[in-house]
Automatic annotation (TrEMBL):
Claim: Transferase is one of the keywords in the record: yes
Name of this protein: Glycosyltransferase involved in cell wall biosynthesis
PANTHER family with a match to the protein in the record: BLL5217 PROTEIN (PTHR12526:SF595), GLYCOSYLTRANSFERASE (PTHR12526)
GO molecular function: glycosyltransferase activity
């Protein structure tokens, strides 16, 4: 099929450091290309892909301090796609609701994967305005806040199978926190869990401008402990060593996380996850197999004591069976084909599905 992947412009595809949505767009694009499809990636010009790259803005917006209005580049991106939409069998957007007004009027099948939180009240009004716009969730839990949207599927995130792998000769010695510094991610709770469990904690995380005050007032004082190490942002090349060296990844989220990519990154390394029972966690973690799902700090501390009961080999195998990027791409392909078949005249349906 001729597939367009349309990514946000905030980060390169894939991101150099932190960046969830653009990272998934990269993994999906590469997997679709490996499956033999004709894929065009609309993204920032500093992106890297084996697909055809159509740069919609010269540089990722986070790395371009001269960009004051981040909406304008995205509107230009949408117009760039609209002008060539007829050359594709399906358009796959990763831009939340931005494509809905334009592409609901374009006679080309499209879908939007919703990557973020959906519990803002204004979102309900947007999807009420476009009730036929096809959207895909990244977990069943994500749909709860927006039950009346036109959900056409749920596709879990996936990673390239050999991007992150176990380090069998590494002796895990610490607990890990990976991701972004913010109150909803529970970094302060992770520090408390590690302290109560008597294990050191290493924190590899990004600090957004919006969270600088939280980092300064809440987290930095806790970093004075000798058993807490703040590393900062790390790249994919550093993640495998960081995660494989951990006894467990702590994921004490304080909100309904739509997916939580760091959980499957840990699983890819054979590292168990101790996560609070919120959002997508029960869909991603198999309790007692790939980690422990807990309700509070005491239960998390108890889970740390039971880590030796888990098989790191089985954790890795569970990742391969459920969360590879190839599996993700195959699940999206079923959705693409269904959309193309429904949109085209009967004589063209066989071509669309071929």
């Amino acid at each position: 099929m001729r597939i367009a992947q349309i990514a946000p412009l905030h980060e390169a595809v894939p991101p150099i450091l932190y960046g969830g949505t653009e990272r998934i767009v990269s993994y999906l694009t590469e997997a679709l290309v490996s499956l033999g499809h004709d894929v065009t990636l609309f993204a920032s010009g500093d992106s890297s892909t084996s697909a055809r790259l159509e740069p919609a803005w010269p540089r990722s917006l986070r790395l371009d301090p001269g960009t004051g209005d981040v909406l304008a580049p995205h509107l230009l991106l949408l117009e760039k796609v609209r002008r060539v939409a007829h050359t594709f069998d399906v358009l796959h957007f990763h831009l939340s609701y931005l494509p809905l007004p334009t592409f609901s009027l374009v006679d080309v099948p499209f879908l939007t994967t919703l990557h973020g939180r959906l519990d803002q009240p204004e979102l309900q009004a947007m999807f009420d305005m476009f009730p036929q716009a096809p959207v895909v969730s990244i977990s069943r839990s994500q749909r709860i806040a927006l039950p009346n949207a036109n959900w056409i599927g749920t596709v879990y995130h996936g990673l390239p199978e050999n991007l992150l792998t176990p380090h069998p000769h590494t002796q895990p010695t610490y607990l890990a926190f990976l991701g972004r510094i913010s109150a909803e991610k529970g970094v302060d709770v992770a520090i408390e869990i590690a302290a109560r469990a008597g294990l050191p904690l290493k924190i590899a995380a990004k600090v957004d401008r919006a969270d600088e005050a939280y980092f300064r007032d809440v987290i930095q004082p806790r970093l004075l402990r000798h058993d807490v190490e703040f590393i900062g942002e790390i790249s994919d090349a550093q993640k495998a060593h960081f995660l494989a060296g951990a006894r467990a990844l702590l994921f004490p989220i304080e909100w309904s996380e739509p997916f939580g990519l760091v959980m499957i990154e840990a699983m890819a390394c054979g590292t168990p996850v101790i996560a609070f029972n919120r959002g997508s966690v029960p869909e991603v973690i198999s309790h007692g197999v790939t980690g422990y799902i807990v309700d509070d700090v005491p239960a998390a501390v108890d889970a740390v004591k039971r880590l030796d009961a888990l098989s790191r080999g089985e954790i890795r195998s569970s990742f391969v069976r459920c969360f590879s990027s190839t599996i993700m791409a195959q699940r999206y392909m079923k959705i693409y084909v269904a959309l193309a078949q429904a949109a085209k005249p009967p004589a063209l349906r066989q071509i669309a599905s071929g």
